[in-house]
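Quick start: read one record
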Amino acid sequence: MTKNCDFIEKLRETGLRPTKQRVKICEVLFNREKTFHFTINDLVKKISEDLNEKISLATVYNTVHALEKKGYLKEISINSDKSYFDTNTSNHHHFYDEDTHELIDCEEKDIDPININKNITGKKINSVEVMVRVASDNQNQK
């Protein structure tokens, strides 16, 4: 488990004052074994349920975006009005379940290498990350 002093350092590196509320946000985000995918609203609800803490939406929003900007979180846009954040900032792929609205990691070994035949002049490709959208196959349910 990560110690509070690590969270305080992360917050300071992002330019945020390490308040008690921001440290609690970091606890929920980074004190875990597995990757955590979340929306801002999911995180507010989880903080309320798990820690019995009320932290304003604005504080959570600003803290998450500051952590993302510094590279501690990755933002994954699902559509123009829905973004998830991921505590795993390495290049990797995702399934997005359109029925449950769940984002699920997909390891690189599970997807064949992608060949890109065209590039934009003057640009280099930094990464290729695939999002596979899935939904129930109602035809197979009887």
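Residues 90-140 form one domain.
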